[in-house]
Amino acid sequence: MAYLKNAWYVSALSTEVGPVELFHRKIMDTSILIYRKEDGVAVALHDRCPHRFAPLHLGKRDGDQVICIYHALRFDCTGKCTHNPHGEGRIPQAAVVRSFPLEERHGMLWIWMGDQPADLARLPDFGPLDEGHPHGVGYTYMHMKANYELIIDNVMDLSHIDHLHGEIITTRGKLSPKVPQIKEGARSISARWEWEQTPAMLIFADHLPQPKEEARHFFDITWTPPANIQLSVGAVQNDGALDLANCVGQYDLHTTTPETENSTHYFFATRRNHIEDDAGYNDMKIKAMHAAFENEDGPVITAAHEEMGTTDFFSLKPVLMTNDIAPVKVRRLLSKLIKEEQRPDALAQ
Ligand code: FES
Ligand SMILES: [Fe+2]
C-alpha cells in the first residue's frame, strides 16, 4: 500500500502517553515506540531492537534511555546504542534504532514517517482547539478495521448523517438534496453546506434563543494532507454571518492514521463555543460522539471495507453521485501527491 510518507500523522493523543510508560503503536506497517523523556518531551523510535528484533516497548527505562528486554542493549532517546553488556562491550556500528520526528500540538503527538527532513511548515494549525476553557474541548481515539481512505470519504460526505445517524444530528432531510460548494487548493479540498431546519439540529437547539423554531445552519469542512479533516458546524437564529463567530457551534478535527492497509487509528477532537465550562456536559458530549462513530459509522465502514476486498476503490467502478464530489476530489488529490512523492526526483525537491 502506498502512503503519503512525508507528512505529519497523529501517532497518539497526548493523554495516551503517560510520563513513564513505553507506549507502542503500529503506524503505516511500522512498529513505533513512543515515550516521554523525564522533561515530558515525547520521542518516537522504531519499536524494534536491531539485534534480534525484540520490540523495545517490552524492555524497561533507565532515565531517558531504553534497555532491550532480551540481551540488554541500551539506547538513548535518539536511538543511539550507549551500552552493550556482552563481551568487551564494544558497540556495533549497526546498533542504531531509527528515530522519528515527533511534535506535540493541539493535544496530539504528530509523527513524521518520511525520509525527507521533517517540515514543520507542513504541520497543520488547528489552533482553535487550544483556545478557550479546558472543559470546552474533548478528545477520543478509535481503532477501525477499515482502510483510512474510507473514513476520510465518510467525513467528506456528510449527506449520510440523516440516513445512518440518529435523531440527535438529523437535518430533517434538508442536507441530502443540497450539493455542497467546493473549493480546491493546491493541497486542500473544502466543502460547505448551508440550510435551514425546524427545529435546529438537536445538539444546538437548546442553546439557541428559541429551541423549537427554525434556524440557519452550516457545515464547513476542509481536508488537508495526509488525512486531516477540520469540520465546523453551527446554527443561528439571527441574520448575521453563518460562521462559528456568530453561531452556536463546534470546531472539530477528524484525523486518521493508517495502521496497515486494512486498519486505521481514528483520532477525533471537538471544541464547542457554548457552555464551555460545563465538565459534565463535556464528558457526555465526547462519549456520545465516540459512540456514534463506534456504533453507527464504524460498523458500516468496516462492513463495506470487507465487502470490497480491495483498497483500490475506483477499480470496483463505484456509482458516483453528487454527494461524492468532495470525497472523490480528496482521493484524486491524495493519489496525485503520493505519486509525486514517489517520483525518482522527488527527494531533490
Ligand atoms: S534483541 Fe535486543 S539486545 Fe538482543
Ligand atoms: Fe457519520
- Strand residue content: 25-35%
How many strand units?
18
Mean pLDDT equals 97
Helix-strand sequence = EEEEEEEEEEEEHHEEHEEEEHH
Pick out its properties.
alpha+beta; binds fe (ii) ion; binds FE2/S2 (inorganic) cluster; 349 residues; 5 helices
What would a concise description of this structure say?
This protein is of the alpha+beta class and 349 residues long.
Q: Would you write up a description of this structure?
A:
This protein has 349 residues and is an alpha+beta fold. The protein has 5 helices and 18 strands. Strands 12-18-17-16-15-14-13 form a 7-stranded antiparallel sheet, covered by helices on one side. Strands 2-3-4-9 form a 4-stranded antiparallel sheet, with no helix packed on it. It is globular and about 80 Å long. The mean pLDDT is 97. Residues 154, 160-161, 164-165, 297 line the site of fe (ii) ion (FE2).
Secondary-structure blueprint of this entry?
Blueprint: E1 8-13, E2 23-27, E3 30-36, E4 42-46, E5 60-62, E6 65-67, E7 74-75, E8 81-83, E9 99-100, E10 102-105, E11 108-112, E12 137-144, H1 148-156, H2 161-164, E13 181-185, E14 188-197, H3 202-205, E15 215-224, E16 228-236, E17 248-260, E18 263-272, H4 279-308, H5 325-342
Antiparallel strand pairs: 1-11, 2-3, 3-4, 4-9, 5-6, 6-7, 7-8, 10-11, 12-18, 13-14, 14-15, 15-16, 16-17, 17-18
Helix pairs in contact: 1-5
Bound molecules: FE2/S2 (inorganic) cluster and fe (ii) ion (FE2).
Fe (ii) ion (FE2) binds next to helix 2.
